[in-house]
Amino acid sequence: MSEISNTTYLLLGSNEGNRFDWFEKAMQQIKQTVGKIVTKSSLYETAAWGLEDQPDFLNMAICVETALSPLELLAAIQQVELNLGRQRTLKWGQRTLDIDILFYNHDVINDPQLTIPHPLLQERRFAISPLADIAPDFIHPILNKTIAQLLEDCTDPLPATLIAD
Questions:
Q1: Catalytic site residues?
Q2: How many CB atoms are closer than 10 A to CB 155?
Q3: Bridge partners of residue 104, in order along the sequence
Q4: Residue 159 · residue 46 · CB < 8 Å
Q5: What are the DSSP calls for 52-94, one per residue?
Q6: CA distance 142 to 127
Q7: Could you tell me which of 73, 61, 62 has the C-alpha nearest to residue 116?
Q8: CA dist., res. 162 & res. 59, Å (int)
């Protein structure tokens, strides 16, 4: 009997230390604890969103096949963040690594611990740009628009600059 396979889209972000190294280490741990990384986006650099007086962020999106439930996935990625030095001291503050669950299949989840789809996705160019690299035709289950349409409609003034494929 095979394990149930779910498709999740995750956003990785970092603006502290060696950002490229954090992403490599995070992807190694995600492969070990979450599941198979099916595809990954290019890397984008963006000015900090929310709390702006801090270094620029590096962001990328990945698509992962997982047997984990949404809450198990949340626990697993939070452990990866902790393993790589994440400290939750200031909302939208500087961090070695941040991993957000953008989508889990086409599910809509409103749990006290977890909201999927990510509620601010459509307002954040730094999240939509890398996601559009790997899932332009994915349809947002609440907004009923493709990721490409969300990117086109996004009013976030902060550019997401492609820095590496």
A1: 86, 95, 98, 100
A2: 7
A3: 8
A4: yes
A5: -SSPPEEEEEEEEEE-S-HHHHHHHHHHHHHHTT----STT--
A6: 17
A7: 73
A8: 10
Q: How far apart are CA 28 and CA 12, in angstroms?
A: 13
- Quick check: pTM over 0.85? yes
Distance separating alpha carbons of residues 149 and 94, to the nearest angstrom: 30
Q: Judge whether residue 28 has pLDDT over 70.
A: yes
State the fold for domain 6-164.
Alpha-Beta Plaits (3.30.70)
Compute the distance between CA of residue 45 and CA of residue 43 in angstroms, rounded to an integer.
7
Predicted local distance difference test score (pLDDT) of residue 66: 97
> What CA–CA distance (Å, rounded) separates 14 from 55?
9
pLDDT digits (tens, 9 = 90+) for 95-141: 678 899 999 999 999 999 999 999 999 999 999 999 999 999 999 99
Average pLDDT over residues 14-28: 90
